[in-house]
Amino acid sequence: MTARVYRDELYGGRHFPKEIIVLCVRWYVTYRLSYRDLADMMAERGVYVAHSTILRWVLTYIPEYAKRWDRYRRAVGCSWRADETYILVKGRWCYLYRAVDKRGRSVDFYLSEQRDIGAAMAFFRKALATHHRKPPRKITVDGNLATHRALRLLRRRNPTWRRVIVRSCQYLNNIVEQDHRAIKRRVSAMLGFKSFASAATTLLGIELAHRIRKHQFSIRYRRTRRYGSLAGAWNLALA
Questions:
Q1: Distance linking the first and last C-alpha atoms of the chain
Q2: What is the pLDDT at residue 222?
């Protein structure tokens, strides 16, 4: 009697097997590779796939991959450092709001076309919703007036924010400014995004790979483990 083979419905109707799809998506969000680079690398291995197909894989599967990885997410600290940086989208500069805790672990991110009170409020609401079981006690922000006003408005509307201490210190925010480099370094190889939706999805994958690199999930890929590699950790997380 043969054992039952589990088939993930997520890949139903695809011409390429699951292993090829996961490999291309994982390599794209983890390393400084273009879609054409990946297509050439696959061709050297006897797999002929168009670069546009890999692009569709990234935009289709990254949201689901992020959900499956989040099942193993570890809690972050209660002292957050928040800051924003610039991302080029369709020839325009957009704003990427990011936050890390005092140990450098990523809290959350939010891409916005504006740098105003509404964008800052949306970012903090999203971050709190992600970490509602362990809300922040301290938040360190820069001197941007819109960010401070957003936190004051959140204090009026949500009692959770009333217990949060808001600080503004240049040196304490160095940790999040340094953490921007990993994201900017990966994005710089893409020469900008063509649409806001694709930028948000791709950044979700890049942030996921960055969190995996910082061991923010309960799945570990040390050599002493039976899966023994980053690829093995991905296989377990997406199972």
A1: 24
A2: 52
